[in-house]
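Subject: Protein record for review, amino acid sequence with backbone structure tokens
Concerning: The relation between a protein's sequence and the shape of its backbone.
How to read it: Take the token row as a discrete description of the fold.
Enclosed: The protein record, placed directly beneath this head.
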Amino acid sequence: MNLKYKANSPFSASNKTYHIIFISILILNYLFPLLIFGDITLFYHDKLDAGVVYNKVIGEYLGGDPNAFNKFLGGVIEGNYFKELYKPYSLFYAVLNTELSFWLLHFLIRITSYVSFFILAKKISSNIFFCALSACIFASLNSNALEGFGVAIFPYLVYLCMYKKSLRFKHYFILIFFGANTDLVGSILSPVLLLITLSIINLNVVKKNFIHICKVLVIFFIPAIITSINLVFLIFGDIVFHRDYFFKESPGIFENFLNIFKNIFRFPTGLNWTVFANLPYNILLIPLIFFSIISKEKVIKNFTFLIFILYFLVFIFDLQIFESLKNNLVLLKAYRFSWIFIYVPFLFSLIALYLLNLSKFRNIIIFFSILSLISFQINSSAVPFIKKFILNDDKSAYQNVYTFKGYYTSEKYLEIKKIVKDNRVLSVSLDPMVAVMNDINVIDGYHTLYPNSYKIKFRKIIEKELNINETLKNYYDNWGSRVYAFVNDKDDVKLNFSEAKKMGAKYIISKYQINSGILVRDCVKCKTDLFLYKIM
């Protein structure tokens, strides 16, 4: 296949067929589960159990509710703790319902990724099919609707720095708009990656256009800083957060190296949902890495080498000597170098584009790319079909937690909300963020930033449970972002409900029956299969 690109505009009428085909593939991600389940599916980890709930409450705050954040974690969470608070895209959550906002942003980020990469790709390759295919790969690899538009617009930044000697009004507008909608924390190292990328493509451009490159970065990052100003103030504030006490025990060198190797090739963590989450990556990245290594093209080898260097740096920083240093430096402790990995999809997509232009590997790369693209669109919909084969202690977790409706189970919480009203609850063996999603005030939850004093107080509730489980103890004491009522044995619950009451909880919502002298069953005749108790 040798389709030459000749049109002046990347989106001219003669090229619409390619865009229709590949954007239709992206739309399968929404259309396929809608036809099968009546809902769109997704992998819930760090999305439905965290980010989506944050954005819902942020939307309520922006919509005019000054007490919206009071729902969270005993009322100690403030809006300034959230990196999304002042991002313009958060306004979607203020005017639209949460699920519609999430999927609309999900689609917009994918389309931005596609267009951004395509514009860059057409300067590298004359084959429009290869440009559209690699753009679709990038859009599929980069589909996190909770991290803003920073990664999605990154190829366009490369394009402006590499191929534009001066900026016009539309360029200024794009830079300012997408800069304002970029996660500053995750993108803090992106200028370094951009310079390296430009150097690999053409080092002379960096030398000649260095002032222009700096100009592009300044225009882009000033609005990113402005819309992240709350985080800047927090850094120099005097609040002690739980992140200040993060402590990571580094594994041995061999185990550390093995972990990095697994991360590069996206190996699943077990026979669970990660098998399906990682499958599309495995299908695509393994042949890309293999052909990149055997390729004689310098630019391909350099980008492949860059990816391995990034993973090697994470390997180095995970060694005990560096972990010990980080554990004593607050700013380093709160930052994870592995955040740079959010830009790895861009590098792999570039490698795919360069490999497609080599006739030697072309057909094989096209085959695995299309296979990967299709699996990307349907992988989250596969789990409900095979949930009985997944080795998991709690198979009910696979009822279909891969949809908003299946995860948040609003019908189960309707009667509970009527009873607890504005009182706070503690969830046992249930995700407490589900209660928040159903407008119930809580004392527990999953938060990336909260006062360390609260972590210490909450520990009294779960102290006996932690004392009999060293893994849980280290999980909470050394990390602690999941402020959960951990239970080791549902038939012998050792939670301190008196301490929960001191922290403001009046009710307990449980997945199973609890025997305790200070708990009285409520909502006995409710239709829900959850158990509601009042703390006496």
Summary: The chain has two domains: 21-383, 408-535. The chain has 23 helices and seven strands.
